[in-house]
Design brief:
The protein has 166 residues and is an alpha+beta fold. The chain folds into two domains: 3-32; 46-163, Outer Surface Protein A, domain 3, CATH 3.90.930.1. Helices cover 16% and strands 37% of the residues. The protein has a ten-stranded antiparallel beta sheet with strand order 1-2-3-4-5-6-7-8-9-10, with no helix packed on it. It is flat.
Length: 166
């Protein structure tokens, strides 16, 4: 076989490999085509992550009328950390606003970092073991100045402002 024949075979083999690769890519990966929608690999409303012992340690869910939540659980399956967005079922204007909640060993929400109010202001809420707000720190919820506030609540629920308006 001459050198030119060998070169032709090598070029034909390379060209065939490239064309074959392109064709198989287009057939097996339709999302890469122009105007195609992405390929859906997983479509569920709840996804659970289990540890080696089978215990659920995390859960990603899309409950209710919107919003999403990522729950991180203890080894016993108790909620510890919740990261998500409000679905607007309690207060419509909260829909889509983020939250980060921390729970104690007795399953009680103890600390909440959220965005709230007309200003969509950052707010940090400290809760007692009864679930009552005991201290709230943030920026003004409705006042355009967005001045910071610190409010505490005594055992009877009476508010005491240390600074700002809440």
């Amino acid at each position: 076989m001459s050198g030119a024949s060998r070169a032709g075979i090598v070029i034909a083999a390379l060209a065939g490999g490239v064309v074959g690769g392109l064709v198989s890519h287009m057939m097996l990966c339709p999302a890469s085509r122009v105007g195609a929608t992405p390929l859906t690999l997983l479509d569920v409303d709840r996804l659970r992550l289990r540890g080696a012992d089978g215990t659920t340690v995390a859960e990603l869910a899309a409950p209710g009328k919107g919003g999403a939540v990522l729950n991180l659980l203890s080894a016993q399956g108790d909620l510890r950390l919740q990261l998500g967005s409000y679905d607007g079922s309690v207060v419509a204007s909260e829909k889509g606003l983020p939250l980060l909640g921390f729970s104690d060993n007795s399953h009680r929400l103890r600390l909440l970092l959220r965005v709230a109010g007309r200003n969509e202001s950052p707010v940090l809420v400290f809760k007692d073991t009864r679930g009552a707000d005991r201290m709230v720190v943030g920026l003004a919820l409705a006042d355009g100045s967005e001045e910071p506030f610190i409010a505490t609540f005594d055992r009877d629920g009476k508010k005491h402002l240390l600074t700002g308006q809440y």
